[in-house]
Write a structure and sequence with these properties.
Shape: globular
Number of helices: 4
Oligomer: single chain
Radius of gyration: 14 Å
Mean pLDDT: 91
Structural class: mainly alpha
């Protein structure tokens, strides 16, 4: 995955996370909520893209999302654990650079 593809994935992921937060406030939008959630999973698990996410805000939001509503653990359990671990790593690294 080249730099442009990574940047595109991050932008899509940020957009989906924003939309998901907004949809949670509107109960009648359950179908779209599910679609956006699935798109987030697709972005993250496409070629294990989650391993390339260094944006702390995105990492924290994905971690929170999967804590509240994890994908199927029998399929994605190891990847969700890796995302959770990576979020901690990203936070530590960003703290070193920005404090």
């Amino acid at each position: 995955m080249d730099s442009n593809e990574r940047q595109n994935h991050v932008k899509r992921l940020e957009s989906c996370i924003r939309e998901l937060r907004e949809l949670k406030l509107i109960p009648a939008k359950a179908q779209r909520l599910s679609e956006v959630y699935n798109e987030i999973c697709e972005i993250l698990f496409d070629a294990d893209f989650y391993q390339q996410v260094w944006d702390e805000s995105v990492s924290l939001q994905v971690d929170q999302l999967f804590t509240e509503n994890p994908p199927r653990t029998e399929i994605f359990g190891d990847r969700v654990d890796a995302i959770r671990n990576r979020t901690g790593t990203v936070k530590i690294i960003n703290d070193l650079f920005f404090q």
